[in-house]
Amino acid sequence: MVFTGNFISSILGIAQFILQIYIWVIIARAVISWVSADPYNPIVRFIVEVTEPVLGRVRRFLPFGAMGGIDFSPVIVILGVMVLQAFLGSMQMQVDTWLR
Questions:
Q1: Predicted confidence (pLDDT) per residue in 15-42, tens digit
Q2: What pTM was estimated for this model as a whole?
Q3: CB of 2 within 8 A of CB of 98?
Q4: SS (HEC) of the chain
Q5: Stretch 54-68: mean pLDDT, rounded?
Q6: Closest CA to 58 of 88, 83, 78
Q7: Assign residue 62 a region: left if phi > 0, alpha if psi is -120 to 50, beta otherwise?
Q8: Nearest to 48 by CA among 28, 64, 71, 62
Q9: How far lies 51's CA from each of 1, 13, 56, 63, 92, in Å?
Q10: Is there a contact between 59 and 12 (Cβ–Cβ < 8 Å)?
């Protein structure tokens, strides 16, 4: 029983860490869009390939032209990831409390 609870708590902690890394990748993508980065650079291609599926889905629902041409999809995705992190954190606290 304790092993299962510790395992679940560890998995939730790892998921939160991965989500934090994803936030930094999205920030890197936003910075790359401001500068003229080489699109053939493997790091740039990796960042674009990792973030585009999520950012593309969010862009479909945003009125891009109505906001003066500014892309707010990274901000919305970061806020969504932060909400997910808070949810996972509360779940981890519940599991830790359940173990006592």
A1: 999 999 999 999 999 999 889 889 999 9
A2: 0.87
A3: no
A4: CHHHHHHHHHHHHHHHHHHHHHHHHHHHHHHHHHCCCCCCCHHHHHHHHHHHHHHHHHHHHCCCHHHCCCCCHHHHHHHHHHHHHHHHHHHHHHHHHHHC
A5: 80
A6: 78
A7: beta
A8: 28
A9: 38, 22, 8, 20, 26
A10: no
Give the closest residue to 27 by CA, choosing from 62, 77, 65.
Answer: 77
CA–CA gap between residue 90 and residue 95 (Å, rounded)? 9
CA distance 56 to 66: 17
Copy the structure tokens of residue 4. Answer: 């299962």
Our count of domains for the chain comes to 1
| Residue with the two structure tokens 């936030």 | 23
Q: State the residue range of the domain holding 39.
A: 2-99
